[in-house]
Amino acid sequence: MRKCMLHRNKIIIFFLTLILLFNLSACGGNSNASDDGQINLYIGVKDRESLNMIKYIINEYKKANPKVELNVDNSIGEKIDGDINDNSNMDVVFISRTDMLNLVRKSALSDMRNLYRENNLNERYYSVSKSFGRFNDRYYGIAIFPYTIEILCNEDAFNKLNLKMPNSMNEFMGSLKALNSLQKRVPVVLNEDVDINTALFSIVSNNLISMKKLEDIYDSGPSAYKSLGEMQECFHRLNDMVKNGYVNKDTFEIGNGSTIQKFNGNDIPVIITSSYYINDIKNTRIKCLQYDNSASDNVKVPVMADVIMSTPVNSKNMDQINDFIKFILSDNIQKKLYNKGFITGNRKVNTPKKGINKSIIEHLKNSTEDNIAVIYNMPKNFRYSISLKIDDIFSGKYTGNEWNEVVEESY
């Protein structure tokens, strides 16, 4: 009897050992097959400035998390929605706002409200940075690199031309007329995704229409857009500027990095540029044009953002994804970006210094959804038609029907 019991106990122990080994083997197999050690990133932006910043934050993550494998996939052509819809392995995507809006309407992006709450983004990030990732009152992303379009004036260069330094938008218009008479062009130095005409259109239009109104009818068809009569007013104002001698087809020219260096000297009185380049401005005699908030025709500072960070609905590796996003949005990484000269969307780390830096931070701090440049709340194909219409206006070909023509050409 005793021998039988011992034999039976041995059999039980044997089977228990087999079960334990099987479970351990299964657990080990699941660990090796899971995506916990890797993150699949999709980069759907192409301009050099945005790619530089994305590269920096990815490298910072790699240094802090050497055991996590980052797989980076870059977009090819204009098939971003197809790339993301057809690939179930995308974890985090870096895309434009217009691409974000297109993907949301196809139910391809996750609602990020929980991430906003867990990371206290409502308190830590500027209102406009959050607004870039919002659609239909839900959050599908966040703009990590918002930048303002600034009008910068070099006081010494104005003095050399015997011109008064402008202190308001109205005075700046007078300066433009004087510069035209002296055949002095105004360089425009912007991120690659924006041209001179659409930047001007954004400056003129941002106080004329509610961005929420535009967002609500996004890609809803020609009749919805034609109902926005206020959009024609943007072209009308540009035409008035031409008729009154403030601007013409020779007023502006495309600038680049070397233009910024010349501007640091005293040969260029005015440039229009994005805050991305502000770290390259070294001359303390250069000032940001201040806007008169009490004026009835006040122009809001346009805010642009070419990079929205979002997560597709088919993302599966949520723990690793959340860790990556928390790392990128952390005060520590945002502070590093700020120390490198980038003004970020994180209000906590943007410590105002003085001069231009202080002015730009103030502009971002006071910006709302209505400061989002108008082109970011329209389908991308609108931009080309808008730019052509502005070329026509600069050449004296104003029809009074530009907006309807833009809508018809875009659909």
From TrEMBL:
Q: Give the family, as the similarity comment puts it.
A: Belongs to the bacterial solute-binding protein 1 family.
**InterPro entries the UniProt entry points to:** SBP
- Source organism of this protein record: Clostridium aromativorans
Keywords for this protein = Signal, Transport
Q: What is this protein called?
A: ABC transporter substrate-binding protein
Query: SUPFAM superfamilies attached here?
Result: Periplasmic binding protein-like II (SSF53850)
Q: Name one Pfam family in it.
A: SBP_bac_8
Q: Does the keyword Transport apply?
A: yes
Q: Check the UniProt entry and state the signal peptide residues, or none.
A: 1-33
